[in-house]
Amino acid sequence: MDWKQILLWVVGGIVVVELCEHLFLPLYWHWKMRSRRSAAGLESYVGKEARVLAWEGNRGTVLVDGEIWKAESAEACRPNDKVRITATRALTLTVSPIRKGSAPNGSAADLPRLPR
C-alpha cells in the first residue's frame, strides 16, 4: 500500500466515525427517548403521591419528595391526607385526595366487582 491509500483509509474512517457520532447516534437516541416520561422538571410530579401539610378552602401546601409545594384541589383536604398529583400549572400542583382502597387511574382495582 502506498501512502495515498493509507491516507484515504484514515480520512474515510474519520468521516464514518464523525457521521455516526454526530448524525446516527443522536437520531437513534431521540427515537428511543421520545416516549419516556420526563424524569426532571415539574411534569415529573404528575402521578406521584404527596402528603398535605396545611389546607384552607381549596388551596394549601403539600410535601412531595421532601419538597413543599403550593397545591389546589376541587375536593376538600385535611392535613396529613394523602393526595395524588393530577396536573401542574406554573408552580402550583393540582391534586386529588386518595381514598382508602383506591388505586391509581386505569388500574384493575378501579373496575367494579362482579357478584358471585
What can be said about this structure in brief?
By secondary structure, this protein is an alpha+beta fold. The chain has 1 helix and 5 strands.
Fill in the keyword field for this structure.
5-stranded mixed beta barrel, OB fold (Dihydrolipoamide Acetyltransferase, E2P), 116 residues, alpha+beta
Write up this protein.
The chain is α+β, with helices and mostly antiparallel strands. The chain has 2 domains: 1-36; 42-97, Beta Barrel (OB fold (Dihydrolipoamide Acetyltransferase, E2P)). Helix content is 27%, strand content 29%. The protein contains 1 helix and 5 strands. A 5-stranded mixed β-barrel has the order 1-2-3-5-4. A hairpin with a 2-residue loop joins β2 (59-64) and β3. The longest helix is centred in the N-terminal third of the chain and has 31 residues, at 3-33. The chain is rod-shaped and about 85 Å long.
Break the fold down into its secondary structure elements and pairings.
Layout: H1 3-33, E1 49-56, E2 59-64, E3 67-72, E4 82-89, E5 92-97
Parallel strand pairs: 3-5
Antiparallel strand pairs: 1-2, 1-4, 2-3, 4-5
Number of helices, where a helix is a run of at least 4 consecutive DSSP H or I residues: 1
Structural class: alpha+beta
CATH architecture of the largest domain: Beta Barrel
Distance between the termini: 84 Å
Number of separate structural domains:
2
**Which strand order spans the largest sheet, edge to edge or round the barrel?**
1-2-3-5-4
Q: Estimate percent helicity.
A: 25-40%
Q: Would you report the number of β strands?
A: 5
